[in-house]
Amino acid sequence: MLFSWKKSWSAYGTPSSSQITSDGTGSANASTRSTGFGPAGGRAFAVSARFGEAGAVDRLADAVTEAFGDAGLDVLVNNAGIGSHSTIGQVTEEELDRLLAVNVKTPILLVQWLLPLLNDGGRVVTVGSMASRIAVQSQIAYTVGKAAVEALAPTLANELGRRGSTVNTVAPGPIRTDLTEPLPAVPEAAAGLTAMTARGRIGGPEDVADVVGFLTGPGGRWITGRTLDVSGGTYLGPIA
């Protein structure tokens, strides 16, 4: 999860801001990633919160409130998530509960907790997945969860619209992340993922981050309640 309190915007819509980050696993990853904000002119700090477990959302929300309570919150990006590689016959109730708790329940509760802090004109972006719109037999629980969380944007956008706030979802395709790290290392898997996209490559985190930056910047002010495909043209045509 990434929260940004923007002070100003550069010519490219990049925020110079204070930021708080949690990777949703309660690990040291969030602390490591937060160090990258400093050179951009902001400050960052990490909060250990294992999403899906009792008290995790409260702990993160309390940290945000303490850090930004006076100034308010301008941007909320729901990005933490977990995957699943089970078919309908394989997925267990425990796996399903965990996945829905992290990928669906947590973003909704974070918005609920932080809505009082959101300034007029604020932005909310949730990271969904284009997998919610295609048939992925081995990821049925994951696709159902992403489809559910994508339904948040239209309703919340309608509720917050009169405040000048926008709410959107970005739906990436195959992206090089910790979640997909093992796949590109397998030649057959890498070739299959590359063949899926019109651009002929697996996306990088920056390909999604740049779109999120646009939506949360001045240029995204008239886009709300939508899911934007950020997949590099995945499944536009025949797979080689």
TrEMBL record:
SUPFAM superfamilies cross-referenced by the UniProt entry: NAD(P)-binding Rossmann-fold domains (SSF51735)
Region Disordered: start-end pairs: 9-35
A molecular-function term among this protein's GO annotations: oxidoreductase activity
Keyword set, alphabetical order: Oxidoreductase
Segments of skewed composition (Polar residues): 11-35
A Pfam family assignment: adh_short_C2
PANTHER family membership: OXIDOREDUCTASE, SHORT-CHAIN DEHYDROGENASE/REDUCTASE FAMILY (AFU_ORTHOLOGUE AFUA_5G02870) (PTHR43639), SHORT-CHAIN DEHYDROGENASE_REDUCTASE FAMILY PROTEIN (PTHR43639:SF1)
Similarity comment: family membership: Belongs to the short-chain dehydrogenases/reductases (SDR) family.
Protein name: SDR family oxidoreductase
Organism the protein comes from: Amycolatopsis mongoliensis
